[in-house]
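Data's thin. Show one?
=====
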Amino acid sequence: MAHLTSAEAADLLERFRHYLREHRLPVTQQRDLIAHAIFTAPDHLTAAAVHQRLSGQGKRIGIATVYRTLKLLKECGLAFERHFGDGVSRYEVAWADEHHDHLICVECEKIIEFEDEGIEELQHKVAARKGFKLVRHKLELYGVCKDCQERS
């Protein structure tokens, strides 16, 4: 996952506020805090993890507000909702020009992001051979991470 600079996070936050105003929705401190948590997270966060992080910082935000705000971030294109086969939605900041794939440990649920130009090229070649214009894709590889293998 790409790490945002403070300026990039501030820009995304302003884009979120603009979206809210355009849709005649309140711009609130709670929504700002939730959006900022997603924009600056080094990992994929569940709604519960966002709530826990903000509560740990002394912020009083209801879990329903977290869920509603995550839905808004997804709707306006600033966050991706990810599903990694465990029935839990996780969120990460959405970059228009950034793409990565995921390795998911089936034992500890660690998620490792990676980029590989060879895989990207191969996917486009396969699509072209089948007469398919590739618009987007996601690649999730499930296995056992190095740490879990060493523990076994």
Observations:
- Residues 101-151 form a domain with the Dna Ligase; domain 1 fold (CATH 3.30.1490.190).
- Residues 6-22 form the longest helix (17 residues).
- The chain has a mean pLDDT of 87.
- Residues 103 and 112 are 5 Å apart (CA to CA).
